[in-house]
Specification:
Layout (H helix, E strand, L loop, with lengths): L7 H22 L44 E2 L3 E2 L3 E2 L10 H12 L2 H17 L8 H31 L5 E2 L6 H10 L3 E3 L5 E3 L1 H13 L11 H33 L5
Parallel strand pairs: 3-4
Antiparallel strand pairs: 1-2, 5-6
Length: about 260
């Protein structure tokens, strides 16, 4: 689940951001990498007699305390991006505790609180869900509803269903191939995911997790929103924006490298 879900303000801003990202990603992905400088002959020197031959230990996703280290890079340089993996060969499967901590870290990120606050502010200005009214009470209800949507959807698709079904909720960046191939891959990941044993299987955590989240949201949304058509619309919208989030995650590393590139002196 990403923050790119629900409500028209979110759709408009995210669509613009993702369009810019894809344009920049296309430019970055099509760049020809610079040729490496010629290697200089290595000088021959005998190792000290007491030195031990060093073997490179394969790295994993654990820190010194044994905790899983999630991706600290931020999508668009702002949004939390903990569930993205850029080097799949160096990671171990997530434990149940890791999957719940992944949701916790995403939902308690300061940018998440600010982003939802902005959405509630725009919803207040547009008087979305009029039964909430205006003033501080209306804003609080809109904020609480939006944050509740995020908590339930993230928990279902990142923690609850992946733990029960033993699936990996992370997105693995392909990072190679044509733009069309990588885009199709990111869309496919909505329907096909990795199990904890690294086998490809149907992504029930995403599809069913968002369906359950859409149904549970009826318990606290206004009465007018509690219809089957609206619930199905929310479900489809959540899956759509998770798909857009995958595309953004796929090309963001290219954009990041493109704009952080420094010319040679």
């Amino acid at each position: 689940m990403t923050l790119l879900q629900r409500q028209s303000p979110r759709v408009t801003l995210s669509a613009i951001a993702i369009a810019c990202l894809l344009w920049a990603g296309a430019a970055a992905a099509q760049e020809t990498p610079a040729a490496p400088p010629p290697a200089t002959p290595a000088t021959t020197s005998a190792p000290p007699s007491n030195s031990q031959p060093q073997t490179e230990k394969p790295s994993d996703n654990k820190n010194g305390q044994g905790q899983t280290v999630f991706n600290q890079d931020r999508l668009f340089g702002v949004l939390p991006n903990y569930s993205t993996v850029e080097n799949a060969n160096q990671l171990k499967p997530l434990s149940v505790k890791d999957k719940y901590r992944l949701s916790w870290d995403s939902l308690t990120d300061k940018v998440t609180f600010a982003f939802i606050g902005f959405q509630a502010l725009v919803g207040q200005a547009e008087n979305s869900e009029p039964s909430y009214g205006q003033g501080f009470q209306g804003y609080g209800l809109r904020y609480g509803t939006s944050y509740g949507d995020a908590v339930i959807a993230t928990s279902m698709t990142t923690s609850v269903f992946p733990s029960f079904l033993r699936q990996d909720p992370r997105y693995y960046v392909l990072g190679k191939g044509s733009i069309a191939h990588r885009t199709l891959y990111s869309v496919k990941c909505i329907f096909v995911t990795r199990s904890d044993s690294r086998h490809a299987e149907f992504n029930a955590s995403e599809i069913f997790g968002n369906a359950v989240a859409a149904g549970l949201s009826n318990t606290y949304h206004p009465q007018d929103d509690r219809t089957l058509a609206n619930t199905l619309s929310i479900w489809g919208t959540d899956v759509m924006w998770d798909t857009a989030g995958n595309v953004a995650k796929e090309f963001w590393p290219d954009v990041r490298r493109h704009f952080s590139h420094k010319p040679k002196s």
